[in-house]
């Protein structure tokens, strides 16, 4: 246990460690982990870490807010699974844009079996960059994921089969735009295909396989040429479940809530036996995002795009130590 830990509210120092470990298990763009935490006697603060933002991929901080929202949702679920209620304030100080949330663990809450399932899924969820099976996701699990998004003031829309051809074109164009940007390529290569004992970024063991040109659903090579080649007969699924999590406006509060919705959907999918990965290109390239919004009818602002399905287990990506992301008042 790090010496920085102390009791917070009605949580012991050991419980504070466990909920913070759950928080940092959240996904982030290229596993950049752009979050910081600060503990006082009564509160846990979540802050964005400006030194870990990716200017080429995320110039408007959208991915940073999504990742921090995912960490916040993990934190809330982990605290709730201990039987503690949580008083939550989002974006509490307009003068401090990096202060994203203040949580006050106090009082008691009833722990349901559903809460426990999601809490267990925090450790089980890992991004899978491998092919999925051509097996449809049951409608009842899709409905459960939609409810999960609505719980966090967001909306989940699935891309219909008739829309997938257009989505392929949008994805391919977004990938082409990014590959023509030398700053993006340099940033991507700096954060992926890592070897050794790095505590962040995407290690080579988690890079999946090297995609072929026809693998339109996962064009990014997270192994930057070093990942194993796709073997014959191991094609990516022809008809994936593509889910878009969107919001009804595009301000930072909506992006932070969308990050919470994204993580609640991912945990629901994990608890239901699904694997998941991200199709970030269509969000990171403004023209592609605008086309995706039009494809979905123009009412929602797309915040993240998920590929969901049945796949093999994926190895976890590394995480920074708590003493690297935690300060105590």
TrEMBL record:
Signal peptide: none
SUPFAM superfamilies, sorted: FMN-dependent nitroreductase-like
Listed GO MF terms: oxidoreductase activity
Boundaries of every Nitroreductase domain copy: 122-310
Superkingdom of the organism of origin: Bacteria
PANTHER family: NAD(P)H NITROREDUCTASE RV3131-RELATED (PTHR23026:SF123), NADPH NITROREDUCTASE (PTHR23026)
Name of protein: Nitroreductase
Classification lineage: Bacteria, Bacillati, Actinomycetota, Actinomycetes, Nakamurellales
